[in-house]
TrEMBL record:
Its EC number is 4.2.3.4. This is 3-dehydroquinate synthase. Residues 175-315 form the 3-dehydroquinate synthase C-terminal domain. GO terms for biological process: aromatic amino acid family biosynthetic process; chorismate biosynthetic process. The keyword Nucleotide-binding applies. Residues 61-173 form the 3-dehydroquinate synthase N-terminal domain. One of its GO terms (cellular component) is cytoplasm. Its cofactor is Zn(2+); NAD(+); Co(2+). Keywords: Cobalt, Lyase, Metal-binding, NAD, Nucleotide-binding, Zinc. Coiled coil: none annotated. It comes from Flagellimonas hymeniacidonis. GO terms for molecular function: 3-dehydroquinate synthase activity; metal ion binding; nucleotide binding. InterPro entries: Dehydroquinate_synthase, DHQ_synth_AroB, DHQ_synth_fam, DHQS/DOIS_N, DHQS_C. Catalyzes the conversion of 3-deoxy-D-arabino-heptulosonate 7-phosphate (DAHP) to dehydroquinate (DHQ).
Length: 351
């Protein structure tokens, strides 16, 4: 399957990914090669992945899985492990895991010794189509999503769809939400095809989603303009995800589950402010609720979620900036929302 070219790296899939990795290792003369894993990828993905490297690994570094461990203390553990095992500026860090691990591992590599090479090997659908692509790295600040980080590109991204067989259905559906987002913001035909298929986790759909995100990133690597459209559903979605992460009496939501809610809410805002048709709004709501269970929000939940909006990364000069849809396949950025519409959006979601 043909590779996808970005600014300074390529995304390789399946057999070509394995061949490219071996060629890169053979010619790069790295002083040390480290693989970062969590307890899940160590058990389910590392054994087969190590065979591709022909025993050229100098160290396996393990962190705990889950968004609650995506913080600077975990980075400290990995930095110290790299240092104690002789890592230097000519070392390579391979991030073998989901979005939390590739975000954190990319940040660790970008800052260790002022920057070492890293390769992302995403093992979840979410990380294959979104988190590992585009060079965003970083960690959370408390429960606030992705507040600390840098944009720095990997040497390559290697996608092996076979790793999806190690996931439960909930994790796979979390990635499906981001794929649907790609259709909503950029490709109405892809949205239509994707919402009507049960085989969204195949290589063709994965490549299509990667291509859509990569095309946007190529136009705007540092998110000054059009790249902001990738945040559709994420302004409210991230606030919801953070709120559920910090609440002891709430079950933690996966990223895609929170973003699915965010896309329904921001779809409603799009209808009110940017002319998204009532029919399209209903289509968006029905599509997400077909795959994701409805979550209950009371008045205090909504109040707390809205307070978290002030921490969104897209904000500037005290304004909360939203990405909205004019139609399915067409997104607009930097939209201010009248405060009275937020409660109406949650009411629409609740109906």
């Amino acid at each position: 399957m043909e590779s996808i070219k970005s600014h300074s790296y390529e995304v390789h899939l399946e057999e070509l990914a394995e061949a490219t990795l071996r060629q890169h290792i053979a010619k790069s003369n790295y002083s040390k090669i480290f693989i970062l894993v969590d307890e899940n990828t160590k058990k389910h993905c590392l054994p087969s992945f190590k065979k591709m490297l022909a025993d050229k690994v100098d160290g396996i570094l393990e962190i705990k899985s889950g968004e609650e461990h995506k913080h600077i203390q975990t980075c400290l553990q990995v930095w110290e492990a790299l240092s104690s095992r002789g890592g230097d500026r000519k070392s390579l860090l391979i991030n073998l895991g989901g979005g939390v691990l590739t975000d954190l591992g990319g940040f660790v590599a970008s800052t260790f010794k002022r920057g070492i090479d890293f390769i992302n090997v995403p093992t979840t659908l979410l990380s294959m189509v979104d988190a590992s692509i585009g060079g965003k790295t970083g960690v959370d600040l408390g429960s606030l999503k992705n507040q600390i980080g840098v944009i720095n590109q990997p040497k390559m991204v290697l996608v092996f769809p076979k790793f999806l067989k190690t996931l439960d259905a909930r994790q796979v559906k979390s990635g499906y939400a981001e794929m649907l987002k790609h259709g909503l913001i950029k490709d109405a035909d892809y949205w239509k095809a994707l919402k009507n298929t049960k085989t969204f986790a195949d290589s063709a759909c994965i490549k299509k989603s990667i291509s859509i995100k990569n095309d946007v990133v190529l136009q705007d690597p540092t998110e000054q303009g059009i790249r902001k459209i990738l945040n559709f559903g994420h302004t409210l979605g991230h606030a919801i995800e953070s709120y559920f992460l910090e609440s002891d009496d709430k079950e933690t939501l996966l990223h895609g589950e929170a973003i699915a809610i965010g896309m329904i809410l921001e779809g409603y805002l799009s209808h009110e402010l940017k002319g998204l048709s009532k029919l399209s709004l209903q289509e968006i709501k029905e599509t997400f609720l077909k795959s994701f269970d409805k979550v209950t929000f009371d008045a205090e939940d909504i109040k707390a979620i809205l307070k978290l909006l002030k921490y969104d990364k897209k904000n500037s000069h005290g304004d909360v900036n939203f990405v909205l849809l004019q139609s399915i396949g067409t997104a607009v950025t930097d939209i201010k929302i009248p405060s009275n519409l937020f409660h109406k959006a949650f009411a629409y979601y609740r109906e």
